[in-house]
Design goal:
Layout lengths: L3 H5 L8 E2 L2 E2 L1 E2 L10 H13 L10 H20 L8 E4 L2 H16 L5 E5 L8 H10 L2 E5 L9 H7 L4 E7 L11 H10 L3 E5 L11 H4 L3 E5 L10 E5 L1 H6 L10 E7 L4 E6 L13 H17 L1 H21 L3 E3 L11 E6 L4 H10 L2 E2 L1 E3 L4 H6 L5 E5 L6 H16 L1
Parallel strand pairs: 3-15, 5-6, 5-7, 7-8, 8-9
Antiparallel strand pairs: 1-2, 4-10, 9-10, 11-12, 13-14, 14-17, 16-17
Helix pairs in contact: 2-10, 3-10, 4-5, 11-14
The protein binds pyridoxal-5'-phosphate.
The site of pyridoxal-5'-phosphate has 15 residues, from helix 4.
Length: 411
């Protein structure tokens, strides 16, 4: 079982008061807070081991390299990848998706090909494909989302065909919290000979994710949404696919050899082994080490426990929100269909007004369209207020949040 009171003691920021109220942090889908163990790991790296990786033979560089490689191993185990060769460290989900778009898509998508993208995606899984289609001239087919925010599986089956080369879909919506059945989507995708890229930004931090079981080809996620630091994220890719791909960016670290041919006046280059072939330049070493500590922290708690805790909080919050006469919850009504995220609105009030009002009571929520405008179009909304929970949130915080909303309703 997860003990949120014990967990809260690990998060120094939760001691803060904002506007004379204890901080209530309900913006976890945007980024999570950091436990002292992660902060200490980053500090410990800079205090004791700081050096560049994979370059020098001296002790510090050996230590830094070992820690950085261990971080890849830890992440590989966390999502049940075969080994660290399938784990590429990037800046975050956005960079991971761009890596697939440019390193795989640019070379593999031809003018008759089709890419399937769902309409519940974060802009970071829409814009790279739209940008690339201007070069590659392939067609993008968007899969509809039902009015309650759930994925339209029927529309997906109608749109996928032999022309489809890649399916790009999120595991969990960052607006509604809807959880997609990525295992089924991967099965259907593979039956059509295509690849599947899953945006795991909102699933990997909150649910057990097993890439072997779901059989996805690529999985992208961000360290900062799972207790880790900003500037570090992960692209998982199946070994055989990554081997076939050309690199994303060129520079140091990603090459084995660069040799100059004076007759041709050209350099011939061979690539480094996986995963370094995709990590050009000096990587975010401290970020990787911070992420390793975050993953260890999550594993100690257990991902099933985290999922259950968030589900209980979501159900509790939804029950109380539904009782407010002017509040309207968007997306599915059942907490079991979703994962720790609730979008809502109150009467005719603007979402930023609601968020600012809540801020007066020390409650941090997100307002706006959460980088997912197409999904807001489906909900017929300009914007929404979003609460999103994590391991350190407790029922008492939801009670205070509901009390503040009751006051807003009086306005
Ligand atoms: C579902 C989803 N995908 C992608 C992203 C982008 O993540 P990052 O900004 O860390 O690259 C987010 C961030 O909110 C997200 O929620």
């Amino acid at each position: 079982m997860l003990n949120p009171q014990k967990i809260r003691k690990d998060f120094p920021i939760l001691r803060r008061r904002i506007n004379n109220y204890p901080l209530i942090y309900f913006d976890n889908a945007a980024t999570t807070q950091k436990p002292k163990q992660v902060i200490a790991a980053i500090e410990g790296f800079y205090e004791n081991h700081n050096a560049n990786v994979h370059r020098a033979v001296h002790t510090l560089s050996q230590e830094a390299s070992e820690l950085y490689e261990n971080a890849h191993e830890e992440v590989a185990n966390f999502i049940s990848a075969n080994d660290m060769e399938e784990i590429i460290f990037v800046r975050g989900t956005t960079e991971a998706i761009n890596l697939v778009a440019y390193a795989w898509g640019l070379r593999n998508l031809k003018s008759d090909d089709e890419v399937i993208v769902s309409l519940m995606e974060h802009h970071s899984n829409i814009v790279p494909w739209e940008l690339l289609s201007k070069i590659g001239k392939f067609k993008i087919k968007y899969v509809n989302v039902n009015n309650d925010g759930t994925f339209n599986y029927e529309d997906f089956e109608n749109k996928i065909s032999k022309k489809t080369k890649i399916v790009c879909v999120s595991h969990v919506s960052n607006v509604s919290g809807v959880v997609n059945n990525v295992k089924t989507l991967a099965e259907v995708t593979h039956e059509h000979g295509a690849l599947i890229l899953v945006d795991g930004a909102q699933s990997v931090p909150h649910l057990p994710v097993n890439v072997k079981d779901s059989d996805v080809d690529f999985l992208a996620f961000s360290g900062h949404k799972m207790l880790g630091p900003t500037g570090i994220g992960v692209l998982y890719g199946k070994h055989e696919i990554l081997e076939m791909m050309e690199p994303f960016q060129g520079g140091g670290e990603m090459i084995r050899e660069v040799s100059f041919n004076s007759k041709l006046q050209r350099c011939s280059i061979t690539w480094n082994d996986l995963p370094w072939k995709f990590e050009a330049g000096t990587p975010n070493i401290a970020g990787g080490i911070g992420l390793m500590e975050a993953v260890k922290y999550l594993r100690r708690i257990g991902m099933e426990n985290i999922k259950r805790h968030e589900c209980v909080l979501t159900e509790y919050a939804m029950q109380h929100l539904q009782k407010l006469p002017k509040a309207k919850i968007y997306g599915p009504r059942e907490a079991s269909a979703k994962c720790g995220i609730i979008p809502f609105g109150i009467g005719g009030l603007g979402s930023h007004d609601i968020a600012l009002f809540l801020d007066n009571y020390g409650v941090m929520v997100r307002s706006g369209f959460h980088c997912a405008q197409p999904l807001h179009q489906i909900f017929k909304l300009q914007s929404s207020v979003r609460v999103s929970f994590y391991i350190y949130n407790i029922r008492e915080e939801i009670d205070r949040f509901i009390e503040a909303l009751k006051e807003i309703e009086q306005i």
